[in-house]
Design brief:
single chain, about 240 residues, alpha+beta, 11 strands, about 30% helix
Length: about 240
């Protein structure tokens, strides 16, 4: 999604603006998965399946599943996100990102947007930009909590491999590989101390939100465009195209 990241610059980006409510989200149209923060699980569980998958560096992270077909986001139409569905923070922060040096950066291929300006006439941050930077700071903090959740899932051996195989009423088949979910039996078998370690940090709540969200796979199937029946299943992988940070 981010194609050309560069540090935010008061001179270079003097006339740039934040994304407005009517601006295109075509930058996310080919994302069939998107990284999630654990703090988002409650909102996300109402809309999308929450799953776990390895990124290209073999690091497990939570994802929202947005489609059953590779490079196809089912929740974008006419370059707009369906207003009835939650927009993950990873999408909302675009075009901003925190670079490896911890500085605010922006995707130079973004354009200029139609919302509030980045800077005022004195080259000072606008209130809108300051709020965006605060959001980025909170985002980075939540990455740490999300990693802690995944580490505890691994420590307690709760994650198991999971694939999706689905067929539409017209007979069109889809297979999604490389997923992981929490094993309910393993979760129920945790002892008192293990369960207590998950409770104060809201991690037990997030785990249950993940399990509840699995029912949303049927919603994805309902949103798939009807196509002529095929003998072979279209196979997709769960590897996120983008890392969380």
């Amino acid at each position: 999604m981010y194609t050309n990241v560069e540090s935010l610059d008061r001179k270079k980006h003097a006339d740039w603006r934040l994304r407005g409510p009517d601006d295109s989200v075509s930058f996310a149209a080919n994302l069939h998965t998107v990284p999630l923060l654990s703090v988002e699980f409650a909102e996300t569980a109402r809309c999308y399946p929450i799953l776990f998958a390895e990124d290209k560096d073999k690091v497990v992270q939570p994802i929202a599943l947005l489609g059953l077909k590779q490079d196809h986001n089912l929740f974008i139409k006419d370059n707009k996100w369906d207003p009835d569905f939650y927009v993950p923070a990873f999408i909302r922060r675009y075009p901003f990102i925190t670079n490896q040096q911890g500085l605010v950066a922006v995707d130079s291929d973004y354009g200029k947007g139609s919302g509030e300006p980045f800077f005022n006439d004195k080259e000072e941050n606008t209130e809108a930009l300051d709020k965006t930077i605060e959001f980025l700071t909170q985002f980075q903090a939540e990455i740490g909590r999300t990693r802690n959740l995944v580490e505890k899932l691994a420590l307690n051996k709760l994650l198991v491999d999971w694939n999706i195989t689905a067929v539409t009423p017209s007979g069109d088949g889809y297979k999604f590989e490389g997923l992981k979910i929490v094993n309910e039996q393993a979760l129920m078998a945790l002892d008192k101390d293990q369960v207590f370690s998950l409770f104060p940090t809201a991690e037990l709540f997030w785990i249950h939100a993940h399990l509840v969200s699995l029912g949303n796979v049927a919603r994805l199937l309902q949103r798939m465009p009807q196509a002529p029946a095929t003998k072979d299943h279209a196979t997709s992988t769960a590897m996120p195209k983008s890392k969380m940070n």
